[in-house]
């Protein structure tokens, strides 16, 4: 870039003005591309509703615990769930301060829900229910997590249920 001295004041030549316009144009194109890529990668989970988490009536200590998750897409575009978190809690020592928490455990799920529909799927909470919960009621929590690269693992929606451990 060259400068022309005009009465002691430095002024940019015409080439400098063209370069500035070119740089602004390139920056605008990059911002539009980034915005498009972010929109494609990050789904809008605002239209996703976790309707129910259904536990079995009972589960045997030492056995795996699976729950049924019912979700609904209340929006005009399909949504794919890719991540959830699950947790199991209970009171293994029968005291007010004795709550035990197993988790949260991340679960990778690939489930696509079409526009304006609902579906259900099975989700593993734990591979083996702790024997310390035998004879107790345990609580299960399920949370759908965001897959937005800018804000990963932000809780979107959640639910829970109770199960009797035998």
What does this structure look like?
The protein is α+β, with helices and mostly antiparallel strands. The chain has 2 domains: 3-41, no CATH class; 45-165, Immunoglobulin-like. The chain has one helix at 14-41, and strands spanning 3-6, 9-12, 48-54, 58-59, 65-73, 79-90, 100-113, 118-126, 137-145, 155-165. The strands form 3 sheets. The chain has a 5-stranded mixed sheet, with no helix packed on it. A 3-stranded antiparallel sheet has the order 3-5-8, with no helix packed on it. It has a two-stranded antiparallel ribbon with strand order 1-2. A hairpin with a 2-residue loop joins strand 1 (3-6) and strand 2. The longest helix has 28 residues, at 14-41. It starts with a strand and ends with a strand.
């Amino acid at each position: 870039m060259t400068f022309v001295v005009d009465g002691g004041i430095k002024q940019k030549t015409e080439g400098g003005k063209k370069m500035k316009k070119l740089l602004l144009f390139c920056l605008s194109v990059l911002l539009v591309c980034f915005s498009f890529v972010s929109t494609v990668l990050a789904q809008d989970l605002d239209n996703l509703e976790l309707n129910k988490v259904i536990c079995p009536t009972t589960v045997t200590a030492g056995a795996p615990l699976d729950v049924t998750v019912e979700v609904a897409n209340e929006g005009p575009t399909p949504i794919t769930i890719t991540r959830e978190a699950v947790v199991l809690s209970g009171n293994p020592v029968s005291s007010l301060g004795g709550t035990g928490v197993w988790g949260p455990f991340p679960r990778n799920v690939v489930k696509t829900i079409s526009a304006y529909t609902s579906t259900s799927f099975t989700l593993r909470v734990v591979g083996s229910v702790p024997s310390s919960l035998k004879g107790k009621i345990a609580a299960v929590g399920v949370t759908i997590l965001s897959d937005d690269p800018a804000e990963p693992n932000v809780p979107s929606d959640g639910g829970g249920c109770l199960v009797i451990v035998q």
